Description:
- Keywords: Glycosyltransferase, Membrane, Transferase, Transmembrane, Transmembrane helix.
- Helix content is 42%, strand content 18%.
- It has helices at 6-33, 40-43, 47-54, 72-90, 108-121, 135-140, 162-184, 201-205, 251-259, 294-297, 305-312, 316-319, 333-339, 350-366, 370-386, and strands at 62-68, 95-102, 125-131, 150-152, 158-160, 190-194, 214-222, 225-226, 233-234, 263-267, 272-276, 321-330, 405-408, 411-414.
- 36% of the residues are buried.
Amino acid sequence: MPILNPRIRRHLVRIFIFILFLFVLDASFLHYRSSPSKDPALRSQSAQAYTATKQTPQSQRIFIASTHWNNEIVLRSHWNAAVIQLAASLGPENVYVSIVESGSYDNTKGALLELDYYLGQLKINRTISLSEATHQDAIMREPEEGEKGWIETPRGRKELRRIPFLSRERNESLKPLALLEREIGLRFDKILFLNDINDDFFTLLDTNQGSYAAACALDFSKPPAFYDTFALRDSEGHEAMMQTWPYFRADESRHALERGDIVPVKSCWNSMVIMDATPFYDTVSPLRFRGISDSLAMQHLEGSECCLIHADNPLSGKKGVWLNPNVRVAYNGKAYDTVHPANEREWITSWQKLIGRWESRIRRWVTSDVVKFRTVFHRLRNWQKEKPGEKRVEAGDFCLIDEMHIIVSIGWAHV
């Protein structure tokens, strides 16, 4: 068996010691940066801030908007109860609940009727819209001449696009906003878009001392991997680099997360998001959800309506879009318990953070999203050049991805 040259052995030992030193240094650095006792920004998101906000709900009027399709299990297991508790804590004079259901195949309607009853018992004002029209009904009808939201797909069919369909559902949930202002002069301070919920609503509400265009939670289905990659963009507009901590490619977003601060991003959704309501009341162009144009989608591009709304929001550049890592929601009980461990322990261990930091570092050294960016950029330019006399602009270019989504009878599909 060959024996290594003593000089080579010494070099290898030095390299090993140096790497070990870096690991120890990183571990100490992460422990220091994430320590609540040293981080006033983290303390501002603590239980103390939660309590202070919760004691003065009358200072905030909250419009809760939500859309549902085949959600019976989640509604009955915890969602309804959480909404009832939140509405009760805000008080009937400070909250309005607007829910849209769209042709579910399970008994989502029955679960929402139960919610309607209990909200009524609390005298909570609400609109709960139930539709018998299923996805199958939507895709089987013949679109009208020039109707938007339909596209010729590679399958040789004219099919219903997913994002404009979802945008209409979300905008339907916002209809009471204008009606309440017009009829009784009632306006809301914040809009809470809600897919899932946890006990940290007031912490999210207090993000950045309550000043933001939007504030989002982190959502999980199979921790430690977070869930919503479609709408999340870091401070430089990149998609998440990895689904585990520390998630982000951009230095500003990543460093904020490592410190335990709220994280500046260009877009987020993550199942629970609060937005300043002001742009939704604009008399000239009220902020609403949308998809990219059908002609741009023909370039085999798509963008989430939950990303595009931040691109369109005039407050995004002024007040910022923030992800609050101290607010974590989940799609099932097991995931929720994982990201909310007992005895106030950290939900992610120091070892996971250390490994994540090194994985992030290596990924930034050896990968980039240049190829993905170029693909989107060239297709965007092709679309802009299609009609030279027409000025084509897409404000949400950072939302675009190389995909095409259509509605099918049991959900949606890539084509």
